[in-house]
Write a structure and sequence with these properties.
By secondary structure, the chain is α/β, with parallel strands linked by helices. It is built from 15 helices and eight strands. The longest helix is centred in the middle third of the chain and has 23 residues. The structure holds 5,6-dihydroxy-NADP (NZQ) and zinc ion.
């Protein structure tokens, strides 16, 4: 096992009615920026519930953080936070709103151009504290320090990570997910599945506990994911999916083990250039990445196949093929397509994706740093 430090500062408030706990978690004399997305919370009643939970606090609203949160939009929220001396951000939504809140939190007291936080890893001081009310289980953003921001103007999707912007609390009420459209349910399950894979499907380092954590989350998602589509108002199904997605990327399962993240990095370019949903990009890239990296990942692919998908096959190459197919079939069962052509993206578009990877310095991806531009091209070509 590799050395590690582990701390997760987010207090999880899990279950029905837990939103009522929020007011007791706000700072004294709170001036709250209530940040949310395109308005789904106004249709499903969450907006009213949040307003009730915040009654008595000094609140300024910012509506309009879009999926794949836009830098320009977030800068508007930064200005509002500055003008109103906001001292707390409550993010209500999915990963985009929570990621957006982290960027706003970091940018408010940053003297230079906040884009540098994303492209140059510029250090920032005194970020605002954040609380999250999760409405879409997927990213784990509610209890990690990662933030991914899009900038259409330059066709870039860039990330930063700091525990200083990790939410201090997160409300996880499974009932808040009943109103999700099937597409977002699917996206969430696929994203969480791939988060586990990025931290598990590398090479063995004798970390059986991390392996079992990861396999437990994968098995839960494989079992419960399709049920969330079939019976959307089943509380237990929603609860199990929600907790799985949080556990998939709250830092725990990745401690002491190598991590890949190549699928995510290549996927981000598909969103930046072609606007595909985040999870859709992962479903396209992962099976091909497994195929291209099959020798390096051999032992863990075989373990995944046997323990998560119940594959019994003595011929190793056949077992690897069956495992890749099982992953692909799972994505298709979740109604997420796995090929570029399913989204009318031609092979000729691969050049642009490779150029973007190069421009962003993403030329040595994966747990061995061996996914160079040539390998990335091979992966995308296989996914055509
Ligand atoms: O904008 P609103 O009105 O809120 O609607 C959203 C949005 O249209 C809707 N939605 C959310 N909860 C709902 C709902 N609709 C009905 N009922 C509800 N309860 O769903 C749509 C998608 O929301 P979004 O927040 O974009 O989805 P997701 O949670 O999948 O977040 C994706 C973003 O997170 C980033 C991705 O790159 C992408 O930008 N990621 C963040 C990570 C992190 N912070 O650790 C890791 C991930 O790998 C990922 O990169
Ligand atoms: Zn993801």
């Amino acid at each position: 096992m590799l050395n590690f430090t582990f701390k997760n500062q987010t207090e999880i408030l899990f279950g029905k009615g837990q939103l009522s706990e929020v007011s007791s978690r706000l700072p004294k004399q709170a001036k709250v920026l209530f940040l949310y997305g395109g308005g789904s919370i106004k249709k499903n009643g969450i907006y009213d519930k949040v307003t009730t939970a915040l009654a008595g606090a000094d609140v300024i609203e910012f509506q309009g953080v879009e999926p794949n949160p836009e830098f320009e939009t977030l800068m508007k929220a930064v200005n509002i936070a500055r003008e109103n001396d906001v001292n707390f951000i409550l993010a209500v939504g999915g990963g985009s709103v929570i990621d957006g809140a982290k960027f706003v939190a970091a940018a408010v007291n940053f003297a230079g151009d906040p884009w540098d936080i994303l492209v140059k890893g510029a250090a920032f001081e005194n970020p605002l504290p954040i609380g999250a009310v999760l409405t879409l289980p997927a990213t784990g953003s509610e209890s990690n320090g990662n933030s991914v921001v899009n900038r259409k103007e330059t066709s870039q999707k860039r990330a930063f990570s700091s525990e200083t912007v990790q939410p201090v609390f997160a409300v996880l009420d499974p009932e808040f997910t009943y109103s999700l459209p099937p597409r977002q349910v699917s996206n969430g399950v696929v994203d969480a599945f791939v988060h586990v894979i990025e931290q598990y499907l590398t090479y063995p380092v004798n970390a059986p506990l991390q392996d079992r954590f990861a396999e437990g989350i994968l098995q839960t998602l494989v079992q419960e994911g399709p049920k969330a589509l079939a019976t959307p108002e089943d509380y237990d199904v929603r609860a199990n999916v929600m907790w799985s997605a949080t556990m998939a990327l709250n830092g725990l399962i990745g401690k002491g083990v190598p991590q890949d993240w190549g699928t995510h990095m290549i996927g981000h370019e598909l969103t930046a250039l072609h606007g595909l949903d985040h999870a859709v990009t992962l479903a396209i890239v992962l099976p091909s990445l497994m195929f291209v990296q099959r020798d390096k990942k051999q032992e863990k692919i075989l373990q995944l196949g046997e323990r998560v998908f119940g594959i019994q096959e003595n011929d190793k190459e056949k077992a690897i093929d069956l495992t890749i197919k099982a992953v692909q079939d799972f994505f298709e069962t979740m109604q997420v397509k796995t090929r570029l052509s399913d989204h009318n993206i031609e092979k000729s578009a691969i050049d642009g994706l490779i150029e973007n990877l190069e421009r962003n310095g993403l030329t040595a991806l994966g747990e061995h740093g061996d996914i160079d531009l040539a390998k990335a091209r091979e992966i995308l070509t296989l996914a055509a």
